[in-house]
Amino acid sequence: MKLQYFIIGIILFLSHSSFAQEDSLITSGTIEFEKKIDSYAQMRKRLKGNPSPATLRAYNEYRDNQPQFLKVQSKLDFKDHVSLFTPLNAQGTLIIDPGQSQSIVFNDCFRKTSIVQKQFLETTFLISDSTRQIRWKMTNETRHIAGFLCRRANAVIMDSIYVVAFFTVKIQLSSGPESFAGLPGMILGLALPHENITWFATRVTARPASQISITAPSKGKPITNAGFKIVIIETLKGWGAFKPEMLLQFLL
């Protein structure tokens, strides 16, 4: 009988622990994200615009030697009114995206400003500007991500890029992976369905603010978002069918 009570007690404890995140607000901590890119799907789209024998050979060789999904691990530290998104590593490669355009993103939600350190070809840029303005449309759809109940919101950015986000109000800081923000809570899931790219939180760890160090990046050539876009467009002249994908990867 004592053993039965002991087992019941353990079950109740684990059940309480699994729902503890749902019951309390988290004001500081670290979120681990995994970004996944379906490289096969992306390359098939490029082949439609340039189905030459050379590109077909490159696609087949890529499929024979590379995994379908490129995975990039990252973390987002947050406390008070600021957050810092930092890529950690990449698994797999894409032919036309050296470095995968990984960005370090500092967001100040109080001042509504961001500082982004971004590598473009051989140059590191430091992009300081206001936080990206996204016109989100709320839905009633929900799902659980990393133990949190999240609500869905949709948007269109860069004129034609459809975005699906899932955010939780249990982390009230208006931030998320990369430069995506602007919802009444933390974005834990994000998808660009037509671009075959997703970001999903795999773990959320609450930590005291005193244990979290957040410093805005400071390395790189100073520039604004508008100025950086001009640099990208001018540099990519002549890239042909690959230009739209490159613009997307470097301007997200």
TrEMBL record:
Q: Which residues form the signal peptide?
A: 1-20
Q: Which terms are listed as keywords in the entry?
A: Signal
- InterPro entries associated with the record: GLPGLI
Superkingdom: Bacteria
Which named protein is this?
Answer: GLPGLI family protein
